[in-house]
Amino acid sequence: MTGVAASDGPDASARPNGTPRRRGRPPRTESAGTRDRILAAAREEFSERGYEKTSVRGIAKSAGVDSALVHHYFGTKEQVFEAAVEVAFAPALKARDTVLDGPLDEVGERMTRMILGLWENPVTRAPLLAIVRSAVNNETAAGVFRRLIASQLLRRIAGQLDLPDAELRAELAAAQLVGIAMIRYVIKVEPLASADPEEIVRRVAPVVQGHLTRP
């Protein structure tokens, strides 16, 4: 397999379709799990160090690969972060359709259970924490997070509402749940941090429902 020549700066060349070429020289024999290992290392680095203090070199060291290989698979640090966000949000995007599938007068409860379920699960909570911490402290990371949430989640939910100000309704509902997640899982303020998830659903779902469907 012929590799792409490694470079310290951006590759000025482009493919015929105009997209930039990936940088870095991949090894002749690549493990099928190399990309996943880099992403796992990236999530850990972003979680521990935040976006600004994380570097491609640090991600590569944590993954046990050369920096050029990180560039080859993902490009810039921003692109690595975006890929890590997409992987972390994959369960939410899969669960999105279950939120939309069912009676409209129960969508608030389904949405509340979906978001809380992702945060309650230790497997999905860890990457979410990494993303949120980076997005709170860095505008570049926040922009990546915002684009994904808006395009992949909120607009899809808004599209199913068929009500005035549908996008604003979806964003208000999301803001309610993101605020709860921040206080419960990131800042860990009591008594919310230790409250029973079912009690949270009971109290919050009607509020979320109101944001989504109240006239």
Automatic annotation (TrEMBL):
The name this protein goes by in its record: AcrR family transcriptional regulator
Domain HTH tetR-type stretches: 32-92
Residue spans crossing the bilayer: none
InterPro entries the UniProt entry points to: Homeodomain-like_sf, HTH-type_TetR-like_transc_reg, HTH_TetR, Tet_transcr_reg_TetR-rel_C_sf, TetR_C_16
Residues covered by region (Disordered): 1-36
KW Iron (keyword) present: no
KW Ligase (keyword) present: no
UniProt-recorded Gene Ontology molecular function terms: DNA-binding transcription factor activity; transcription cis-regulatory region binding
Keywords in alphabetical order: DNA-binding
Pfam families, A to Z: TetR_C_16, TetR_N
DNA-binding region boundaries: 55-74
